[in-house]
Amino acid sequence: MQIVASDEGRTALLRTLGSMLGPTRVTPGCLDARLYSDLDRRKALLLVEDWQSREQFELNLDMAKLNAIVAAIELSSEAPVVRVDAVEREEGVDVLALHRSAILGNP
What we know:
Layout (H helix, E strand, L loop, with lengths): L1 E3 L5 H16 L4 E8 L6 E8 L2 H7 L2 H13 L17 H12 L3
Antiparallel strand pairs: 1-3, 2-3
């Protein structure tokens, strides 16, 4: 979820979103939960959660968390961007080496 905070609402938005991180991280099935600030757009904040499965993500969406998300959206100075992505396959740095070899013409 990406939310843009006004200068006046930034602290409250950070507090609201930040309060969700600890409880989310210890929830079964949560791989990671982080809150990022965009360096180019200082007012833009990005909340990212990684889950083992869609089911575990949905189980985590209880009323307290939904209320916190709604509170954060109400503090936003622009319409938020909310996305739920499903990743079919994940690859690491070895893929970069493979592509680099192909570009350089190495087998």
